[in-house]
Amino acid sequence: MSICGLDFGTSNTTLGTIEGHAPVLAALETGYTTIPSAIFYEVDGAVLIGRKAIEAYVEGAPGRLMRSLKSVLGTSLIEETTRLGRERVSFRDVIGYYLGAVKRRAEQATGRELRDVVHGRPVHFVDNSDDADRKAEQTLREIAREVGFDDVTFQFEPIAAALDYERQIANEEVALIADIGGGTSDFSIVRLGPQRHGKANRAEDILANDGVRIGGTDFDRQLSLGVVMPLFGFGSAMKRAALEVPSRYFHDLATWSNINRMYEPRVMTELRQVRHEAREPALLDRLVRVVEEQRGHTLAMEVEEAKIALSDARQADIPLEWVAPGLNAAIARPDLVGHTRQLAERIAARVKICLGQARLSASDIDAVFLTGGSVRLAHVRKAITKAVPSARIVEGDTFGAVGKGLTLEALRRYGPRD
């Protein structure tokens, strides 16, 4: 069949097809059905995606790495360009190349041309802006058609996760679906059950949808600004009284989608001037080195790895010997919680909004279905489940539930197609 479900995520991407009557995620890399949403432009013109892109960057290959590609949708960045050698490429074209490569890999893995797709989307690409939200979806629709899809429709990601979850339940229930991803946190309240699974129209079963543009990359940013960036001069003083080193450099360096801004030639000129006027120039020397060597993504990846490690461990170390001898950032779990508590609370607040939309109380929720990589953060899970304390907690396929659900939706919308 030529139909598929595509979950283009901030951190990872999956693409599912129907085998028999069941959704199956295509192997987009050898041994993996998930592929990191990353792209690496080598100086010789070659382009790598996924794990190969990250490996090339980590191994020091000359070129430009980009991650969190989805984050620019709905923002002014989508039409901006970034420098690649002597040329400049728009972020729209970067996303197009990546999604086109994913489509080709899936077609090679399945042995069939994929023409019709149900694309996943967050409940809100952008908070509090219906116009920006519409533009984000339209941009993604146009890109999908440009890379070769004929029919492109969308489904909310938490609704897709609900369809995947529904396959494993034996009785009717009302479920809260929590999809906490890399860029957004999305919730749906859905009435599910074996008898409802085959219905042609599920609109009356969808009781509420809401979301917020907060995800794992935001936790990375806050952790970086709180623990790592002060080692590079964030919050330090200038020689002039009552002035601090400009913060915008550190915010860009701590934000996945903005890191490449730091590599514009004018930035290095500015940083050298700031270093000259800083009260602690040695800290700025560290920042200059990171930018000179274009290692901003290295910092971001090390912060991300520490965040993930703190899901299980009490402490994680970020080795920064490559910046300065003996430099290290030790992060304890209370640091993670302290610097990101407000993010977790803002995510959990959407549960109450969904309950209000559905006109239900917390006790009416039978189960909470958790999916998305950021549900592994203990304080995020706790904040969500605390809002519906009597509900049964169900662990979903962390990175595959949405993709499988989108594929089921593609089967419902398009039917079997040769």
Q: What's this, in brief?
A:
By secondary structure, this protein is an alpha+beta fold.
Topology:
Blueprint: E1 3-8, E2 12-19, E3 22-25, E4 35-36, E5 38-42, E6 47-49, H1 50-58, E7 63-67, E8 81-84, E9 87-90, H2 91-110, E10 116-121, H3 130-146, E11 151-156, H4 157-166, E12 173-180, E13 185-192, E14 206-212, H5 216-228, H6 248-253, H7 265-277, H8 281-292, H9 296-309, E15 315-319, E16 328-332, H10 333-358, E17 367-371, H11 378-386, E18 392-395, H12 401-414
Parallel strand pairs: 1-10, 10-11, 12-17, 17-18
Antiparallel strand pairs: 1-2, 2-3, 2-4, 5-6, 5-7, 8-9, 12-13, 13-14, 15-16
Tell me which CATH architecture of the largest domain applies here.
2-Layer Sandwich
- Main sheet characteristics: 6 strands, mixed
CATH superfamily of the largest domain: ATPase, nucleotide binding domain
Q: How many individual domains?
A: 2
Please report the first level of CATH classification, the CATH class of the largest domain.
Answer: Alpha Beta
Q: Which structural class should the secondary elements be placed in?
A: alpha+beta
Would you tell me which CATH topology of the largest domain applies? Nucleotidyltransferase, domain 5
Global Rg = 22 Å
Catalogue the unreliable spans.
none
Order of helices and strands: EEEEEEHEEEHEHEHEEEHHHHHEEHEHEH
How many β-strand stretches?
Answer: 18
User: What's the shape?
Assistant: globular
The percent of residues in helical segments reads 25-40%
Average per-residue pLDDT, rounded, comes to 94
Number of helices: 12
N-to-C terminal Cα separation, in Å?
5 Å
* Residue share in β-strands: 15-25%
